[in-house]
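Extended Data, record Peptidyl-tRNA hydrolase
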Amino acid sequence: MPQNTWLVVGLGNPGAQYAGNRHNVGQMVADELAERIGAPFKSHKTPSRVAEGFLRPGGPKLVIAKPNSYMNTSGGPVSALLKFYSLSPEQLIVVHDELDLPFDTVRLKQGGGHGGHNGLRDIQKATDAAPFLRVRVGIGRPPGRQDPADFVLKDFSGAERATLPNLLSDAADAVEAVASDGLVAAQQKFHAPS
């Protein structure tokens, strides 16, 4: 695989009952990216569905993946994809929900702790804690005393759903910016005060 190839993994849980959950926002961003490059998801030798294409002619290649595993066991599929495409963890962009960011916020980082996110924890274990790139999609904290584990497995509220397309678009833009311009330039763009 050429150096200008990126494995973009949208985290979530498989199955229609989880499709609209906050925890599945990574897979929603993966859908947005696949639509942009005009590539359908297909079943793959690794335990994932994969869409492949170029951001633009001569631009970076994206291998967009949605693991068929549950969130907590995302590491195996990610490791298998890296191996299949001969990519290093430095070429991995994981898109995931982030409780510690307000809803409708996108932030980019490389490495760092998992913050209790079991999908990230499993990927870190599977990649020997190599510092992969992360697009963190803010879903906010649960209201009151609601358990975060319950909160992430609930669908977005009506008010959130009205704004969700913009959030997904911003997160997809962030992935494209990282792939095209690198992390620092993308951070300057997405972390600037609006």
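Summary. The longest strand covers residues 48-54.
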